[in-house]
Amino acid sequence: MSVQSATPGALPSGAVPADTVVAPGAPGGPGRRSGPGANGKRPPHPTARQMRRNAWIFLAVPLALFAVFMLLPMVIAAVISFTDYAIVGDWTWVGFENYTRIFQDSFFWIALRNTAWYTLLYVPLGLVIALSTAVLLNRRRGAVRLFRTLFYIPVVSSTVATATIWYWLLNPQKGLLNVALGWIGIDGPAWLYDSQWAMPAIVLMSVWAGFGANMIIFLGGLQGVPGDLYEAARLDGANAWQQFRYVTLPSLSRTTFLVSTLLIIGAFQVFDQAYVLTKGGPGNSTVTMVYYIYNKGFGALEMGYASALSFVLFVIIIVFSLANARLSTPRSESGERRRTRRSTRKAVSER
Amino acid sequence: MTAIDSDKVGSTTGGQPTKARPQTVATPTALADIPRSRPRSTRSRIGTAVWYVAVTVLSIITIAPLIWTLSTSLKPATEILAGALNLIPSNPTIDNYLSVFEDVPFGRYFVNSLILGLGGAVTNVFFGSLGGYALAKLQFRGRAGVFALFLSSLMIPGIVTMIPVFLILRGFPLLGGNDILGQGGLGMLNSYAAVIVPYAAGAFAVFFMKQFFETLPDELGEAARIDGASEFRIFAQIYFPLARAGMAVLGILSFQAGWNNFLWPLIVLNDPDMMTVQVGLSSFVNNYETNFGPLLAGTVVASLPVLVVFIVAQRYIIEGVAHAGGK
């Protein structure tokens, strides 16, 4: 530890190669330790070699399963997407025909628009609700355990179960939701029978069913935020919102990235709810991408076309996930910079 | 503590944690200057009241649909149709629950789902921890590549690989009556392995545990390495115990995913004896479309095990995640 604290800020973070961190463990002696300039040229240490070998042993099973049940299927799916494979009967090579067909397929655009609408509603709502409930429950109080359990219970139920519950709940006349809205004088919509409200209803159900899981992940992250930072912020006169904005959010950037990535990937693959609740209706307003692919692949048995569609979906998910990575990283860094600047200013004014 | 501080405050791009820098953290005198007790007590009492109101309202919104489900499952059919909104059944009955177990072999489904859920949880926690640890704490060439591979596979829609994985399981050599070329039998289909094995070391498990291990300080392992501990000992005796909170969360999520899994068991388990609770419940939905009593009773029964697991393991989630490493 003394080796580390001896060179604070001498190198920018990330510039220290891994070997120098490991080096103190090697029997090289103190002479070696004092020369970090010669990094990279050193022959591998026994520890470094052992570390490398162990890493591959640790990763052996995950990688083997990954090869057989992820990489190989991807190859098979890619090959199928260039054919008119239909499970039964002969199949022929059709080249890029499946892919060019997609862009002239009006149903594809409907499904894409519906899925984008779902994602646009679900991801921000799911993120905000999961984070705010986690912040609310990040206390040391006896009651916290009870409320955490209560918030998690919807996650426990399967989609088959929650969909059944909400089918009943969203009933325009007798459903609990519209009755409750009636109490405050609002005439609730027909929800699943209204092409305008069917998708928001599915979003509502999905957020309700899923926020507890992300709340648990956020709570894990919140418990890792050191209390000293809040103490320091309070002494600087920060109010609750400023503490949240300049301490909690930057400290949680990694967790936020994890949760938002999961939400985006999940949102683009929404299927169960639309399948159980509306079967894509009314008026195709809840036909999602995966639902369309499922219909093409298992309904019409156009496996080749369905595979091509699924690859297009794959590309869309990658684009949005990368955009999310871009969005979430600089924001947290700028927040961090501002905070550093503030604390520097504070230090100066104290002097 | 400094290790945690610098790791959290430092670069979020996954590089080495920045070194702890001297900061103007509160000095003892500054703390003593603040009159703590008097003005806070009233404010904090109001804050506590507001907090209780907020969480109670949220809880009611979250729980109301489930309470309603529970109460409906205890009502006779006539009452369900007549007074849909009364929360306490006027003539409570367990007939709905009895019919769930009489009409279909729900007990058998229950055992099947339990095996699949537990199998998925154990394998994912074990392999996910090993893989995530290697990616977070061990230095080796190709680390970034392996991680990118796992991460990118998370974005692959499940539907892309569904048909090929089915074909691979069916054509698996030397299993389920297959010859060496994978011909002639059903391979791994209709076995627990067909559900557990392909997802035994999910990319999510590896990704999740990597993120978790990164919140633990590197210094602990380095100190042990200086003392000459082997890599496996460093993992097993230093990081493994500290990772219990993360593993509990992952275990719960995996068990829950396995228990609630619907589409995949439906595809690969065709034998009625191999049916899971969810598949059984879904056939219920088709057979009892308007018969909400037994349907919602089945829903309650199907949700119980995962809830019990969550309540039992809560202790581990409450334990600090990164706190454990810092203190």
TrEMBL record, chain B:
Membrane topology classification: Multi-pass membrane protein
Domain of life: Bacteria
Transmembrane segments: 46-68, 109-135, 147-169, 189-209, 238-259, 292-313
Keyword Manganese: no
Domain (ABC transmembrane type-1) ranges: 110-313
Region described as Disordered: 1-40
Keywords annotated in UniProt: Cell membrane, Membrane, Transmembrane, Transmembrane helix, Transport
Example of a GO biological process term: transmembrane transport
Pfam families, per the entry: BPD_transp_1
The UniProt record lists the keyword Cell membrane: yes
Gene Ontology cellular-component annotations: plasma membrane
Subcellular location: Cell membrane
Protein family according to the UniProt entry: Belongs to the binding-protein-dependent transport system permease family.
PANTHER family hit by this protein: ABC TRANSPORTER PERMEASE PROTEIN MG189-RELATED (PTHR43744:SF12), ABC TRANSPORTER PERMEASE PROTEIN MG189-RELATED-RELATED (PTHR43744)
Name of the molecule in the record: Carbohydrate ABC transporter permease
